[in-house]
Specification:
The strands form 2 sheets. A 5-stranded mixed sheet has the order 3-2-1-4-5, with helices on both faces. Helix content is 44%, strand content 19%. It is built from 11 helices and 10 strands. Bound molecules: 5'-O-[(R)-(carboxyoxy)(hydroxy)phosphoryl]adenosine and zinc ion. The site of zinc ion (ZN) has 4 residues, from helix 4. Residues 110, 114, 134, 300 line the site of zinc ion.
């Protein structure tokens, strides 16, 4: 089954052709440089950029593969969560193709797609535990099958990526700062006692990262008042260690408690080198297999949309042409 996936939920315009859950070809136009000028994603600009790029990207995808709309079996699009205007551009484009080619339309939950992205590269055996860490979400899921996901816990304030981006901004790094923070932290020495590990011992799977951010602010201020300039690499390593200690402890703890022997990692922060290292070490200790996608499949992409749609279509999840974008899709 050849599925055309379309992703426009935030600041990446992406299309992919996915055959039976595996990527054939993908194209992507990032808007990162435009939004970086404003220090974050500007929704109105995002919508306009999607509108500007979608048609050309579609043509490029078909040119590269030598395929046409007639070869496509289903058209899939991100329905939410995301920015309303940005989502609407993709949904309208998908409806046009669905109508013009008389193809079934599949609406995909962006978060579920992130979690299934690992299946583009690995054969997964269910059930498993899913950790989604991105700019907007820090979620732990129980995944019994590709179409059966249950949210077990989530962040109560900042998402992990958001916390990293805000921290990077404090250090004067450009948006989005997560990748630069990752690199900077590799050169620093982490002090395990500098910042708190909130919610580590709480008896649920929720997270809270805003306290760590406040801890950093207080530390920087008090050091400067004492006439000392903190070493950015050391502060980055200590901040990252605090965030990752909590994520790793809660995720692996949940897998052990629930007797799950497989964890999948997903979302932009899943490409963090230290997170992968720490999770791998902890998983090994407990005999848990850890799966994570290639970094290109961690951030927003359309192959994951085509992959999720393949499973949804098989389960009968076809949408009508009155499909709406839902910015806060649960
Ligand atoms: O999944 P994603 O592309 O977009 C959302 O749906 O949010 O994730 C983007 C987030 C940003 O906050 C970015 O700073 C963070 O992922 N990120 C990282 C790394 N690469 C991307 N955070 C830490 N370490 C990284 N290597
Ligand atoms: Zn995403």
């Amino acid at each position: 089954m050849l599925c055309l996936g379309i992703e426009t939920s935030c600041d990446e315009t992406a299309l992919a052709l996915v055959r039976d859950g595996k990527c054939v070809e993908s194209v992507l136009a990032t808007q990162m440089d435009v939004h970086a000028l404003f220090g974050g994603v500007v929704p109105e600009i995002a919508s306009r950029e999607h509108y500007r790029f979608l048609g050309a990207l579609y043509d490029e995808l078909m040119r590269r593969t030598g395929l046409t709309l007639a070869d496509v079996d289903v058209v899939a699009v991100t329905r939410g969560p995301g920015l309303l205007g940005a989502l609407l551009v993709g949904v309208a484009f998908a409806k046009g193709l669905s109508l013009a080619g008389n193809k079934p339309l599949i609406a995909v939950n962006h978060l579920h797609a992130h979690l299934l992205a690992v299946g583009l590269e690995h054969e997964l055996l269910y059930p498993l535990l899913g950790l989604l860490v991105s700019g907007g979400h820090t979620h732990i899921y129980r995944i019994d099958a590709p179409e059966s996901l249950e949210l077990l816990g989530h962040t109560l304030d900042d998402a992990a990526g958001e916390a990293c981006d805000k921290f990077a901004k404090m250090l004067g790094l450009p948006y989005p700062g997560g990748v630069l923070l990752d690199r900077l932290a590799q050169r620093g020495a982490a002090d395990a006692h500098l910042f708190p590990r909130p919610y580590t011992h709480v008896d649920n799977l929720d997270f809270s990262f805003s306290g760590i951010k406040t801890g950093v602010l207080n530390y920087m201020n008090s050091e400067r008042q004492a006439g000392r300039e903190p070493n950015p690499a050391d502060v980055a390593a200590s901040f990252q260690a605090a965030v990752l200690d909590v994520i790793v402890a809660k995720t692996v703890g949940a897998a052990v408690d629930m007797n799950k022997d497989k964890i999948v990692l997903a979302g932009g922060v899943a490409s963090n080198s230290r997170l992968r290292e720490m999770l791998q070490t902890e998983c090994k200790k407990h005999g848990i297999a850890l799966y994570y996608p290639d970094p290109i499949l961690c951030t927003d992409n359309a192959a994951m949309i085509g992959c999720a749609a393949y499973y949804k279509y098989k389960a009968g999840g076809i949408s009508d042409l009155d499909l709406d974008a839902v910015p806060d899709l649960p």
